[in-house]
Batch of 4 targets.
Target 1
Amino acid sequence: MNTNKTARIIDGKKIASAVLEELRGEIARMRARNLVPGLAVVLVGNDPASEVYVRSKRKTCADLGVNSFAYDLPANCTEKRLLKLIESLNVDARVHGILVQMPLPKHISEKKILEALSPEKDVDGFHPVNVGRLLNGEECFVSCTPAGCQTLLSRSGIKTAGKHVVIVGRSNIVGKPLAALLMQKSEDANATVTVCHSKTRNMSKYTRDADILVAAMGVPEFIKPAMVREGAVVIDVGVNRIPDPTRKSGNRLVGDVAFAGVFKKVRAITPVPGGVGPMTIAMLMKNTVKAARQVPAKK
């Protein structure tokens, strides 16, 4: 049994802070050239979780010196109105990145909205052009959560080259783009990647073989200790709210990994909260700065 002497927490807050501090310096230099990165964040409706995420993104923009353009639309906003807004933001020179907070109300097609974005301003990395470029190994905007996972690993000194990475979850937001990212012929990639999902038979057979296990299925504490190889590295992408009568709020946040038990077996693991979450916003800021860098400074 692993004595856990070498196990450690991968501190997403600390790593995200380092990334943001690096960006702060670059943004200051850009502003000195009269180029101010601008991010438009569009929120439709009043989903509580979405409101929290959007507030955090806007606060980070203000802290770094990124221009934040807020567009808060009512839940009954029509698809046509939202498409018209995106059309105007696509040609607005002040706006370098556009983020439409998901999920959208059911009467609006997320597919249509994502495809309406200019790929050059798609800092969330969800436009089909950016998804295709990622798969081809071309320069593109990489989805923020997968990019955050890769950065957590690389900045923690965890090599992926030649390692077996098992991703549990095949969403367009995390599982698929992360698999494409880690299999590339590039630094901090070159992994052998297996993707498991709800139809995978004998899933533990694959998860126990993982050098690096990524849990991203959105099921509270799904990954149990018996599913993890001793000495593995675990990245927990899940954020789930479960009942907890001992808390004032009546609930608490947990990941997709049964943390307490799994921690005893692994070499390194991300916590929830404080692991992947902070990295997602850091990568959004990095993509926004990258988008601004691609346009000439104002005269």
Target 2
Amino acid sequence: MKVYKSEKAKEKILKTYDQLLDEWGTAVEETDISTTYGTTHVVQCGEKNNPPLVLFHGVGDDSALMWIFNAKELSGHFRIYAVDTIGGPGKSCPNERYAKDFEQIKWLDEVFDGLGLERAYAAGVSNGSYLAQHYGIMRPERVIKMICMSGSVAEAGGESPLKTMFKVFFPEAFFPTKKNIEKLIKKLSGDNYGVFTENSVIMEHYSCMLKGFNNMAMARHKLKFFNEEQLKSIKDKTLFLLGESDPMGDKDNAKAKLDKYNMSYRFFPGVGHGINHEISDQINKIIIEYFS
């Protein structure tokens, strides 16, 4: 499975990935976990005897960018394991098996096993929210608690987010000029879009991903929708955090679903899809309090 459009594109993405890690403001360790579907890259930080917290990023994203404003604060309380989703534009490397018969839960089991994690807290943003939710439902004994950001419950009968994604990302993502990239970020964000646009390394990395990542590499990650019993099984150990200005979701629809399953949640005014970037101080505090 070709993750990058060219070797040159790969070099640019990985170079800016490392530059973003340098801005985390804390010492990191990087490791590659061997799985059935290739190697999965994990960025680790925080004391090893801290409670384990597994972090999942979104589609077309990676750990270096997703947790740039969270890793330093969270690593003071947890041992962080930031997973580069296999098939995404980070440092994970899918093999031929990935393109043939990828199974998300089998992959996550092998990542947890490879990291030596019997149980852990989990948090994710966007598709990472779904990954945390999926694993929490299918492996309740391995997920202590979870926080799902910029994503609602994946209930049976739900629609694929592809239509919404196309509406939000078109035309800017298909014509990634400097002007269009800034316009797209403003579409995705709330009032505090400057956390992205005023950081030159973030802008460079995001530009490299839009231009050089093969989006079809994530096509093997199929969404699974859950029934009422499955969703209610996680209601006492899950917190949803959402932005009221998130163009990827409708507030009223999301709230109705969350209420239907008696989920705990909080909405934040003036906040878009990049909730953990836009109001990082608040989000860091909530994560620490909820998991502590």
Target 3
Amino acid sequence: MENNPRKPYNGFIGTTRAKILGLVLAFVVTFMMMYLGAYTKYCLFVFVGALLFVIPKAFGVKSFKAMAVLGVAFFLVTTFVGAYLVTIPTIEDAQDTEIEGTFYGYDVQQISGTDDYRIYIHYDGASAPTLNYTQITSCSFEYLFGSQKTSVMEKASGNQYTTTVKLADNNVYLVSFNADDKWSQTSVIDETINSDTLQKTAIAGNMYVNGIPTVMFFLVLLFSTWMRRNFEKQRAKFEAEGRLYPKGYGLCKKCGMTVLPGEKVCRKCGEPIDIPEEIQRATLAKLYGTEKCPNCGNDVIKIEKVCPRCKTQMPGREVLAEGETFKCSDCGADVPVDADKCPMCGVKFEDDSDEPAVECFKCSECGELVPENATFCEKCGAKFDKD
């Protein structure tokens, strides 16, 4: 099969090296987009999934299995690498009570028998600080997401302020304080969590966030696979009907235009079409069927009058003499004068049934068939005697 002239990179695209490069490049690009949080700043989750699909396809990857493995690998690696190597260390680094600036640490005490927690903070400023606390519902690498709540703190004594909030056990909460346009660093309330809770939160959060582009990837993969298989079924049907050549033989060598059976020149550029005879015969065999030659056993297309191998006339098929046939203007096949369409390429002829049949004779100069009442040959101009 020759390269499509419309795709100059066919020499590399589709090779094993190109496919491996496409798969690796797709994984690295999308992994870094998740790691760096680019999806939150410059694009949507769906764009990550689309890139995961498009990049391998651009390098010629067609295998559904290879693409599916890529999608599963992306999901597993981003989830567990994100959880264990980034998310958990990020939360653990924030699990302390040392707060920079004018905020001096905080303390958390659970009110016995309830889910209420009293939180204390030391602050030297003039205004009462506000507590900001967020329950982590999802995460991706070092990016933690959740709905933030606030609570204004009341003065307890001296520079100590307090407030009471409801915190569900076995959940991770981020806390920070602000007052007088000053903010504390973000910390984690560690009184309500343990190591199992931390791991569970990190894994579940990364699974949710990284699962969104993965789901988008598989939706696009399944839809495109379904479309391609439908297209291939339709193409196989057209090939069986003789309406398309097999793959590799249905393109113009000059411009890459699709060539249909029976065409002698390209519809786009006019280049002569050079389709191997065996391919043309195979296409016609699918269209009309074959039967065995009674003499040599060769497969003979049912529209052929004689066996192409031994020249034996096929039973029940009259071999028409010259003058009883004419050349098809589309494919050049010999067609009976009373045919309404070409038996080789299927082109339909104008209906001349209302006109009386005209007997012809062969021009003595050029061999062209001319009506018997003609006085000269339309092809070579030779004049005929009235006799």
Target 4
Amino acid sequence: MKRILSTAAAAFAVASIALVAHAQEQLKVALVLPGPITDGTFNTAAYQGLKAAEAKYKLKIAFQENTTFAQSESAMLQFAREGYDVVIGHGFQFADPAKKIHKRFPKTWFIVNTAKVAEAPNLASFDNRWGDGGYVAGYVAAMVSKTGTIGHIGGLPVPVIQEYNEGFDRGAKRFKPDIKVLSAYVGSFADIAKGKEITLSMIERGADVVTATGNESVVGTIQAAKEKGVMAIGTAFDSAQFAPDTIVTTAVVRFDLNIDMAIGLITSKKIEPKNYLLGFQENGVALAPFRNFDGKISAENKAKVTQLIEDIKAGKVADLPKIR
């Protein structure tokens, strides 16, 4: 009996050690977001990317929503002090705070999305070619427009939104040189009412296809388009399910890929303190299916969109926006 008990005790001890070792190896990843995970665009995309990485890499995760500019540094500091192995700031506003504090926590990797910041030993950024996505979005918008007027509504004129806006304008004119492209900024990422108001104004001026970049402000644009029966091109997160008869397609920004790549490189110890820039070639941006609009777009025009994306991948499109 004693021998049986001793064997059982030994087995239990080994199992306990294995569990402790597994717990110690489990990567702790925190995501700091400037808006809510329910915005259906910028923040939703990052949160779903975090959840996918959690399942794939067996992570211990945490996140903070609705982080203001003033709270950016303190939020990242808090997670670093709590021993998180990776702290991801989702947005350009986290670049300077991360640069300021990263050296104080050499065991933590600081990752910033939609920014171009990097510094040894433990600060890297993952950015996407928003301008390329905007270019294809504008091309599609001009393709489906009946009035010859389309519009873009941005939250704030930050680099990635400016790149998207510029790409949207150039892509639209590639398909139809005389297309009229309206553009305006909300002055906020979060003001749904203002986003809707500006969009309604554009629709009154003839825009029958609109697109928006921001956080909750994008919701206002989709609401306006839906109410007025015009079309919309989504951005960042494929949210066609929320307005299937309004959203033609989405210029998807693959934040899930950004996060997956960052975690994969960190776990394999191959990450470098540099900016990783991802476009169509790297699947960092993509075009969502046309879904409810599929039957309304000719096979010829679908082929043109596919060819445009292939040409972008091959470096054959000369007027893509420059990366800011």
